[in-house]
Amino acid sequence: MNPRDSIVLVGNSVRYLAQSARAAGVAVTAVDGFCDADTREASEHHQCASGLTPGHLSDAARGILEGRDSAWVYGAGFESRPSELLALTRHNRHVVGNDPSTLQLLADPRRLFALLSELDIPHPETKFEPVPADSGWLIKPAGGSGGLDVRRYTATERLADDAPVYLQRFVNGALCSLLFVADGTELEVIGFNRPLARFASAGDYRFAGVIGGLAPGEAVEHGMLTAARRLTRTLGLRGVNGIDFVMDRGRPLFIDLNARPTAALELYEDVLPAGGYLCHVNGCRGELTVASTPRTVRGMRVVYARQSLRVGAIDWPAWVTDRPVPGEYIPADQPLCTVHAQGPDRETVEARMRERFDGACRLLVARNEYAA
Length: 372
Known about the structure:
Layout: E1 6-11, H1 15-23, E2 27-32, H2 37-42, E3 45-48, H3 54-65, E4 72-74, H4 82-91, H5 100-106, H6 109-118, E5 126-127, E6 137-141, E7 151-152, E8 165-169, E9 175-183, E10 187-199, E11 204-214, H7 218-235, E12 238-248, E13 251-258, H8 275-284, E14 297-304, E15 309-310, E16 320-321, E17 329-330, E18 335-343, H9 346-367
Parallel strand pairs: 1-2, 1-4, 2-3
Antiparallel strand pairs: 5-8, 6-7, 6-8, 9-10, 9-12, 10-11, 11-14, 12-13, 14-18, 15-17, 16-18
């Protein structure tokens, strides 16, 4: 099946990819952990996973993919257990994206950081055994994504030899990321971005949004591109990928490689000639897309539920996406929707996102069975 005609999208949240594919005239079947109202609107068929683990996604997708000549694209959700992704490729080999072996390497921090050292890609100091008690280390899960389960390390916490975690020196610098499309050897830059953590100062490092269309400066850009080119050629990266960095005294240090389309891709939909979905598909087929320079800075911010609530019927503004279906129950501290903003610079976008975040919260308080 041609991914330019129809596609199955599988991931924790595939709303944006579904919208981009539909805009390109592609018929979408969505397998998604949230099944928001706008995801359903962009899809001809949808299947809700019963949870957000790789196993839940795999279970929901298997019946749709098995025995069918269906091309499919995966998004976020398989990082911690790439074996589930590999199992799906055995049911249906028409996957459009990086080989599961790449995710298997990324889920093995010993192999990953050995590779980074071999490629001379700077990264924060990383250890796999306990260190003396101080406040300077983070404990991270192997195959992590979106900052989930990242926390400050204390020496009272034991590390088992086979524990799927590692320690990384905390670097108190700004986060930055590079979004690019690759053909297995070469790459084209889509954009440079500022990822946002939810409450980093309080130790909550979960993904809370991203601002795109930034200019990091020549030296920083060179360091990020050098890392991306070395990883692309070594791993044969294809399609849209993202690399997260943290700044340390003017030098970008590698944190994560997301070997699939990231949330930031939505910020460049209008500057990619055929949109983000086809940019990814074409890259996987060896055709690189060159993005034009964004005229405005764009950003998005995730609204988390402050307490458990059942969502009422809300007339959402156009700048809200990932809209929950009326009547849906959202547990406390879980993603509820996303607000978007644009402007001439990062400061303006940050201010508008704060205003719209507060506006979305007011709508939720006014129109829900329980206060947000």
